[in-house]
Amino acid sequence: MKQIDERLRDHYPALTPQEQRVADFIFANIDDLMSYNSAELARLSHVSKATVSRLFKRLGYPSYRDMRDEVRTLRQSGMPLTDSRDAVQGNTLLSRHYKQEMANLTQWINQIDEQYFGAVIAALSQARQVRLLGFRNSYPVALHLRQQLLQVRSGVLMMPQPGQTLAEELVDLTPQDVVIFVAFRRRPRAARAILTQLQTLGVPVLLICEPQAQPLLPLARWHLASVLDSVSAFDSYSAAMSLANLLSNALLHEMLASGRQRIHQITDLYSDLDELEQR
Q1: pLDDT tens-digit profile of 247-256?
Q2: Is residue 64 within 8 Å of 40, Cβ to Cβ?
Q3: Nearest CA to 141 among 216, 208, 235?
Q4: Could you tell me if 99 and 236 are in contact, meaning their C-beta atoms sit under 8 angstroms apart?
Q5: What angle is formed at CA 222 by the lines to CA 220 and CA 225, rounded to 5 degrees?
Q6: Which phi and psi (to 5°) does residue 158 adopt?
Q7: Do 214 and 151 lie in a common domain?
Q8: Residues 182, 123 share a domain
Q9: Are 24 and 46 a contacting pair, CB within 8 Å?
Q10: What does the pLDDT read at residue 181?
Q11: Shared-domain flag, residues 178 and 133
Q12: Residues 129 and 27 in one domain
C-alpha cells in the first residue's frame, strides 16, 4: 500500500494548480498531517474545502478522514513512515528529534505509579529466577535489561537461546519465577500464545510494550508502557532503554547489600580474567 506522500508524487504532474498547492503544503508538513482536519488543511493551503476533497478522492481515498485513519493505523502498527523534510533540513530534524525524545520520556515517567512500580521491583527481587524474552526490535532492549539485572542478582536468563525453541524453556517455570516479556509493536503473532501459556502456568509476567498494546495487558500481571514515537520513519527505543535503566537501578536499591557484593565479585572476576580494558 502506497503512503500518502508516494501517492502525491505519483499524481503530482496531473494535479491542478490548486491541488498542487495542497500537495506542496503536505510535503512541507507531512509529520503534522494527522493534526489537521480538512477545513484546516484547506485554510492553510489557501484553497477551498472542495479542492481538498477532490484531491484525496483523486489519490484513492473515499474521504479525508479515511486518509487520516490510514496514516494513524500504519504509524501505530510500527510501519516506518518517512518525513520528506528529513533529508534536507538537518538542523530542524535535530531540534524536532530532541523535543520528541523529551516528550516520550516525560509521558512514560508521568504514567508510572510508585506503588505499582514498587510491587514490580519487589517481585523481581524475590523471584526464584528472572527470565527475559524479546523478539525483533524488542530483543536488544530485553538483552540490555538482562545484562543490567544480572549485575544485581543471579538467575537472570534470556530465553530461548539462539536458534532454539521455547517449550524447553517454559517447562521449568513456576509461579515463583518472573518473566519479563519485552513485546513492542510489529511483534510476532506468537506473542499472545506465549502470554496465554505463561498465564496458564501461573507464571507472573511483566509486559513491557507500547501504550497501544491494550489487548495484551490482561495476559500479564504487570505492564509498563514505553512510548516509541519518532519524528520520522523509525520507532525510537530511547525511552525503552531508559525504562530498562530505571528497573535495574531500582532493583539494585531494593537488594543493595547483596547487589553491591555481587557487583564487587563481578569486578574482581573482570580483573582476574583480564576481560576489560582498564582506562
Answers
A1: 999 999 888 8
A2: no
A3: 208
A4: no
A5: 100
A6: -85, 145
A7: yes
A8: yes
A9: no
A10: 96
A11: yes
A12: no
Check which CATH number belongs to the domain holding 204 and give it: 3.40.50.10490
HSE of 5, CA atoms in CB hemisphere, 13 A: 18
Residues 257 and 125 in one domain: yes
Sheet holding 178-182, edge to edge: 156-158, 130-134, 178-182, 205-209, 222-225
Within this chain, do residues 105 and 37 fall inside the same structural domain, yes or no?
no
Helices (H), the chain: 4-11, 17-28, 38-45, 49-58, 64-76, 90-111, 114-126, 138-152, 167-170, 190-201, 238-254, 256-273
Sequence-ordered list of residues with C-beta below 8 angstroms from that of 116, at least 6 positions apart, any chain? 222
Q: Which long-range contacts (CB under 8 A, 24 or more apart) does 142-149 make?
A: 142/180, 142/182, 144/241, 144/244, 145/180, 145/182, 145/244, 145/247, 145/248, 148/244, 148/245, 148/247, 148/248, 149/124, 149/247, 149/248, 149/251
The number of domains in the chain is 2
Supply the CATH number for residue 29's domain: 1.10.10.10
Q: Looking up cell 498542487, which residue turns up?
A: 20
- Between the two ends of the chain, the Cα-to-Cα distance in Å is 52
Condensed to tens digits (0 to 9), the pLDDT of residues 122-178 reads 999 999 999 999 999 899 999 999 999 998 888 999 998 888 888 888 888 999 999
Please, are residues 102 and 151 in contact by the beta-carbon 8 Å criterion?
A: no
DSSP string of 18-79, one letter each residue: HHHHHHHHHHHTGGGGGG--HHHHHHHHTS-HHHHHHHHHHTT-SSHHHHHHHHHHHHHTT-
Cis geometry, peptide bond prior to residue 160 (ω within 30 degrees of 0): yes
The answer to whether the beta carbons of residues 106 and 99 sit under 8 Å apart is no
Is 215 within a domain?
A: yes
Q: Which cell goes with 218?
A: 490482561
What pLDDT is recorded for position 207?
A: 94
**Residue 255 falls within a domain, yes or no?**
yes
pTM of the model: 0.66
Range of the structural domain that residue 38 is part of: 4-76
